[in-house]
Amino acid sequence: MKSDGDLRTRLIEAATAMLTEHHALAVPSLRAVARACGVTAPAIYSHFDSVDALIAAVLDNGFTALEQTMNTAEDVRRAAHAYVQWGLANPGLYQLLFESADRLGVEPAVETLTRTGVAAVEAQLGITPAEAARLHERVWVSLHGIVSLRIHKAHYAWTTPVSQDVDDLMNLFLS
Fold first, then answer.
1. How far apart, in whole angstroms, are the C-alpha atoms of residue 35 and residue 132?
2. Which residues contact 105 (CB under 8 A, 6 or more apart)?
3. Phi and psi dihedrals of 47, rounded to 5?
4. CATH for 88
5. What is the pLDDT of residues 31-67, one digit of tens each?
6. How far apart are CA 118 and CA 60, in angstroms?
7. Which residue blocks in the chain are alpha helix, DSSP H?
8. Are residues 67 and 130 in the same domain?
9. What does residue 38 show for φ and ψ, rounded to 5 degrees?
10. Where does the HTH tetR-type domain start and stop, copy by copy (predicted)?
11. pLDDT at 70 over 80
């Protein structure tokens, strides 16, 4: 007979497996979306032929909004600030775009955002496309860390304002 300690260990292991399993997102049905708009379900089909088409439109709109925000920045440093501020102002959409979209089975438009960012880094710093792509990725990973941690750890007593975190990070990468 197994001891209570063994059962406790097995319970923790089972709960860990369940909590860390790669879960599918709860995607709203087209009927639920139509209901939220006060229309009947058939009305949605004149705009979207499937829930995947609707999700793709949501992702495209999100990436477009972020890209428009970043395009107003005058340089790479300001674009980094714009990225972080947009993410913090739109936490649910940010998480959908960068932490959940891949699980929806719809290809997000992150490639367009990446091309724009790499071109800006290359132009501003006068480096090769390969160097710009590598630097852009490193900055993106770091900025995502700032946004994601600030979203998920909102009650943590951060020692610096987020703008200082972005400036410190960009000083490291741009010096």
1. 46
2. 52
3. -115, -35
4. 1.10.357.10
5. 999 999 999 888 888 899 988 888 888 888 888 899 9
6. 19
7. 4-20, 30-36, 41-44, 51-71, 76-89, 91-95, 110-125, 129-152, 162-174
8. yes
9. 75, 25
10. 5-66
11. yes
